């Protein structure tokens, strides 16, 4: 796996150069092919991910079909390069809640979540990072609500 300059990604602008150099030691980039699964729901959440190139779909299963093959709902399409996903462990959740599937060939930065969390806690950056993540998830929530409203009433302006 190749190394990457993580200081160029938005979340890392909140960190010190010392924190960034510590994280660089274990941040890696991996290439994923179309339709490749990055993680599934209920898998142990070990890593967090940053999209560098490509597109990733985050999906949840329906209650009727846990296989994802027939009934699942896309809750987010990760297309913005530098966008974070798979942050469950940072919120104290030990399992992923979605399936992350590659929609287009992608380059993804993979960061061991526990080590990342330890570094931001040691340097008292946890509040800044969690505030950033709250903003990211609130924006995703608003986008999802707009999309659901559009699906329910396609003629209505959101």
Write structural notes for this entry:
Strands 1, 2, 3, 4, 5 and 6 form a 6-stranded antiparallel sheet that branches. The chain is α+β, with helices and mostly antiparallel strands and 158 residues long. The radius of gyration is 16 Å and the shape is globular. The chain is 28% helix and 29% strand. It has helices at 17-24, 113-122, 126-152; strands spanning 28-32, 37-39, 47-61, 72-78, 84-85, 99-112.
How would you summarize the topology of this molecule?
Layout: H1 17-24, E1 28-32, E2 37-39, E3 47-61, E4 72-78, E5 84-85, E6 99-112, H2 113-122, H3 126-152
Antiparallel strand pairs: 1-6, 2-6, 3-4, 3-5, 3-6
Report the strand count: 6
Structural class: alpha+beta
Rg, alpha carbons: 16 Å
User: Largest sheet, if any?
Assistant: 6 strands, antiparallel
Rough shape? Answer: globular
For the termini, the CA-CA separation is: 43 Å
Residues in helices, as a percent range: 25-40%
**Poorly predicted spans:** none
Counted by DSSP, the helix tally is 3
Order of secondary-structure elements: HEEEEEEHH
Mean pLDDT: 80
**Strand proportion:** 25-35%
By oligomeric state, this entry counts as single chain
């Amino acid at each position: 796996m190749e190394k990457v300059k993580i200081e160029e990604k938005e979340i890392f602008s909140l960190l010190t150069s010392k924190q960034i150099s510590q994280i660089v030691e274990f941040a890696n980039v991996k290439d994923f092919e179309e339709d490749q699964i990055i993680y599934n729901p209920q898998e142990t959440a070990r890593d967090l991910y940053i999209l560098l190139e490509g597109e990733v779909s985050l999906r949840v299963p329906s209650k009727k079909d846990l296989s994802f093959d027939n009934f699942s709902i896309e809750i987010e399409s990760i297309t913005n390069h530098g966008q974070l996903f798979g942050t469950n462990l940072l919120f104290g959740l030990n399992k992923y809640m979605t399936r992350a599937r590659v929609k287009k060939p992608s380059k993804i930065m993979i960061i061991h979540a526990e080590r990342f969390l330890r570094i931001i806690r040691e340097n008292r950056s946890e509040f800044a990072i969690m505030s950033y993540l709250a903003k990211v998830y609130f924006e995703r929530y608003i986008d999802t609500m707009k999309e659901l409203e559009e699906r329910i009433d396609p003629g209505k302006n959101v």
